[in-house]
Design goal:
This protein is mostly beta strands. 11% of the residues lie in helices and 28% in strands. It has a single domain, classed as Putative cyclase (Glucose Oxidase, domain 1), CATH 3.50.30. The strands form 3 sheets. Strands 4-11-10-8-5-12-13 form a 7-stranded mixed beta barrel. Strands 6-7-9 form a 3-stranded mixed sheet. Strands 2-3 form a two-stranded antiparallel sheet. The protein is globular and about 65 Å long. The chain starts with a strand and ends with a strand.
Length: 225
């Protein structure tokens, strides 16, 4: 059995999506005066639903009046679920300006066998290796619209990927409504997924238990036999 931690580290100075999303800061707390022993503790400033690796869903686009909050996703849909892994070579992908993109042809080439409808799908390119680099948000890969439409037709529950944005933020194609409008959750951005060897794996998505949010930071573990 092989365990892969696919969740990126959270630390001061890490990337952020920018205003209004805050920068993460780790702050040491003073020893509480209501105990006699020394207690070393920290608080997390600038911690949001999109800090590090996270899961978000339709509520991120539609709001909580039209979609359920993340804490209402049943654990059986997040924990130990089957997932198919589509692997891509970043160097072989075409580019739009400085951003690589995945086409429907790329996806069909990466499909080793038929992916049943309702399956969870992981996109693995190795982009997670850029987690601590200045280009992480500036040069990340994205899905071309016809590729996203092809994937959405498979009616996946979860799309997990190692890019911080499924669409090209410099030239958006409408993937926001396409993905979230079809009741799909995104788990992103991930790291280490290029180290997956198997086509089929077990995916464990462990969000924080914070109520009434449209997204949550999470630990993501992948197991392959």
């Amino acid at each position: 059995m092989k365990l892969i931690d696919a969740s990126g580290p959270i630390y001061e100075g890490m990337w952020s999506y920018g205003d209004p999303f805050p920068n993460f800061k780790l702050v040491e707390l003073e020893h509480p005066d209501w105990v006699e022993f020394s207690a070393y503790s920290q608080k997390f400033e600038g911690f949001s639903m999109l800090t590090g690796s996270y899961i978000d869903g339709p509520g991120h686009a539609l709001g909580l009046k039209k979609a359920n909050p993340i804490h209402k996703i049943p654990l059986e849909k997040l924990f130990g679920v089957n997932a198919y892994v589509l692997k891509f070579n970043l160097e072989e992908l075409s580019k739009e300006e400085n951003r690589p993109y995945i086409t429907i042809k790329d996806i069909k080439k990466a499909e080793k066998e038929f992916i049943p409808k309702g399956s969870n799908i992981i996109f693995a390119t190795g982009w997670g290796q850029h987690w601590d680099k200045p280009d992480f948000l500036k040069c990340n890969w994205f899905l071309k619209k016809e590729a996203a439409e092809y994937i959405v037709e498979k009616n996946p529950s979860i799309l997990a990927m190692d890019t911080p944005s499924a669409d090209n933020v410099d030239n958006e194609q409408g993937l926001w409504s396409l993905i979230y409008g079809n009741d799909i959750c995104l788990v992103a951005p991930l790291v280490n997924v290029e180290n997956i060897s198997n086509y089929k794996v077990k995916l464990y998505v462990c969000p924080l238990n914070i109520l009434n949010t449209t997204g949550l930071p999470c630990r993501v573990i992948i197991i392959e036999d």
